[in-house]
Amino acid sequence: MDFVTCTLVLLLTCASVHALSLLLSRIIAKPNYNLPPGPSPIPIIGNLLELGEKPHKSLAKLAKIHGPLMSLKLGQITTIVISSATMAKEVLQTNDQFLSNRNVPQSVSVLNHDHYSLAFLPISPLWKELRKICNTQLFSHKSLDSSQDVRCKKMQQFLNDIHQSSQIGEAIDIGTSVFKTTINFLSNTIFSMDLISSNGAAGEFKDLVTDITKLAGTPNVADFFPLLKMLDPQGIKRRQTKNVRKILDIFEDLINQRLKIREGTGVYNNKDMLDAMLNISKENEFMDKNIIQRLSHDLFVAGTDTTTSTLEWAMTELIRNPEIMKKAKKELEQIIGRGVPVEESNISKLPYLEATIKETLRLHPPVPFLLPRKAERDVEICGYSIPKDAQILVNVWTICRDPTLWENPSLFSPERFLGSEIEFKGRNFELVPFGGGRRICPGLQLANRMLMLMLGSLVNSFDWELVDGMKFEDINMDDKFGITLQKAQPLRIVPLKLK
Ligand code: HEM
Ligand SMILES: *[C@@H]1O[C@H](CO)[C@@H](O)[C@H](O)[C@H]1NC(C)=O
Ligand SMILES: *[C@@H]1O[C@H](CO)[C@@H](O)[C@H](O)[C@H]1NC(C)=O
What we know:
Elements: H1 3-27, H2 55-66, E1 69-74, E2 77-82, H3 85-94, E3 101-102, H4 125-138, H5 141-146, H6 148-168, E4 172-173, H7 174-191, H8 203-217, H9 221-224, H10 236-263, H11 273-283, H12 289-320, H13 322-335, H14 351-363, E5 373-374, E6 379-381, E7 384-386, E8 391-394, H15 396-399, H16 444-461, E9 462-466, E10 479-480, E11 486-487, E12 492-497
Parallel strand pairs: 2-8
Antiparallel strand pairs: 1-2, 3-5, 4-12, 5-8, 6-7, 9-12, 10-11
Helix pairs in contact: 6-7, 6-16, 7-12, 8-10, 8-12, 10-12, 12-14, 12-16
């Protein structure tokens, strides 16, 4: 059954239960919360049907009526929607302490993943340990610097593949190619190996990661009506359990192989993330094999779709805006040299490219509501109460298009960031595509390096043209809502040798 059918069936069968509960609610008085304003919910399903196909847009519209701090009822779940930079600051900074737990969807709780997952644990000693290790070891500048050569090598392979396509005038699906490359960037950073061979034979890993993200982003009736969790009406839990089992098994094999190598007299150079984690496990007992598998799962799932979708949008915007493409090319030519691949040590010298990535993340924030947060206890914001256990969605998509913050908000213009202090590191609340506060994306620095490396190299090494004489005005700019906001129609472009 699809989501809407499920919801409607549910509506009918529950109508009678509702009559009963109304009766009961008159007898048992509820606490009198002063919830933020919002649309009135209909019985049982609340405001669920108002979400539509594109919740980021529907909720943006509702916020125009009800304000930047809005409350809704999504099924049984009280949901607070944040739609301005000021309110985002209230959630991500001022009241961060009590608003930083996660709402856990059923697709995440399979195999108890939420008990081990960096991304979905509540604030807890284990979560703090994992964050500390990310910040001080896995994603520190020092370790990212020491793994940059493997990413550079992968980038070179990617460029070779494109070069082959350019020789036969073949179009490439930029999303698919970047997806593969991103997985290999991550798998080489973590495990020093490719998880996808460039001829595409090892498609299983890619399909796993794709399916896990897809299921995590599929609206699930059971998330809105916790009573239905047992029934798994859309089969999401069943499918996700299989996927997660498989991916954890793949990681387990890799860990076992590495342990064998480390036991022997290793010629091994001991410098990837897996080695860092195994080193930690010798001193710190919480870092066991299970946690390493779980953390690897989270890094791949959180890092792949987000990075890929950003790059696909960036290329789309550059192709649609030839003047901007020209400027980006010119900067690269002057600073790096025409056709020379970009390296990570170069990225601080490319302000226009950096601005292009910021502008892409502004117009197409890959995680439009951040990861759903949950209130640990009652919190008061601007005189309204956010009740304990309410889900909190920060609508980054609408904040990034707020006309009171951004001039000409729907215009793609990297220039707006030149000479501006605005960054996406969680301190400027008008631009928080990576979130903020203590839950801010720990992969931010790696993401930025991968994006600069790929975009810079793609732009500097080739000219690009659309397929079949298509004009750039005709590019379909529609987006598709999921846990990440992707391009609805894949961008297909033809690489040309630089003239
Ligand atoms: C363009 C790329 C990326 C974007 C836009 C992005 C965005 C986000 C966002 C919005 C959150 C939630 C923040 C919040 O709740 O305030 C998040 C969390 C997270 N991200 Fe990223 N991310 C990206 C790339 C990556 C990469 C490359 C990795 C790692 C390899 C990664 C790992 C994580 C993890 C583990 C979390 C959960 C952190 C926690 O809950 O404590 N992300 N990311
Ligand atoms: C792991 O420990 C070994 C031996 O102490 C050390 O040489 C290596 O650099 C460490 N690796 C990482 C990634 O920290
Ligand atoms: C780019 O990085 C490479 C490798 O580190 C270096 O040789 C080159 O000089 C850098 N170019 C610029 C302009 O920084």
